[in-house]
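re: ur question from yesterday

yeah so i grabbed the chain u mentioned. its 269 aa long if i counted rite. heres the sequnce exactly as i have it in my notes:
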Amino acid sequence: MSSHELPVTVVPEVIVFVGIQRSGNHGLLNWIKGHGPENSVHINSLDINSLDTKEFFTKLDEESELQYSDRLMIGLKGREQIIISLENYKLHTPDGIENLHNFQKDTNATLVLLLRSPLNNIASIYKVTANNGAEAQIDSTKVIRKLWHQYAKEFTDSKIKWDAKILFDKWIIDRAYRNRMGKGIGFVNVDSDFNKISGHGVSSFDLSARNSQEIDLEGRFLLFKEDSVYTSIIRDEKMLEKWFTLAKSEGYSIPKIQTEYIHEQLRLV
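ran it thru and got these structure tokens back, copy pasting raw so excuse formatting
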């Protein structure tokens, strides 16, 4: 649907949030929602094929009392803010880029990209899929590794005009960085709901935690650093070198225990 065919209507604030599964998506989303209006709505993990401008404008005329929907677009009438999160969105495909670009153009959406340390991102997915069987666990983890390469490339060599590109590892420790990212998204950061853990964002390492300060978000990989399967997946020279380069470009100092582990893995490549 092209822009000139769109109905004449008032479009609320729209934020499209793109991140890899288990990369801190819901922590960021709670923070964003904590700075938004009470009648906002969050469409979680919407399928790429559902990011459709025509359907979006149709839903603006439909009502719903829900403030959260998983994978499905719901009625959006009367909402001041609509947050759409896309997990594992295929940024490397022409269709994926064009679809996101067109949706942004037609809805004036704010676009946010999230990336996390590959060691901790992969450790989290490795943990959460542990009960799926060894083969499925390995396959899921390799998918995340492949996506990390794609997201890192987009982070440093963007084909999409992002309003904020957020490195999760720096975001959790640097208030000035959060201030800058909040400004890019469109709000003044006061750290509202910054440490909140809820819903699908519950930690796979500590199911009871409700505050991110209670858990070690930078040291997830430590649980698996002696695990031969995990290390075989992590031992990706291009990925590890790309992580060093990206962290440096963002002004993030990778913790010493993580750099030592990475150097150890690089020596074994």
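noticed a couple things. The radius of gyration is 19 Å. also Confidence is low (pLDDT under 50) at residues 207-212.
anyway ttyl
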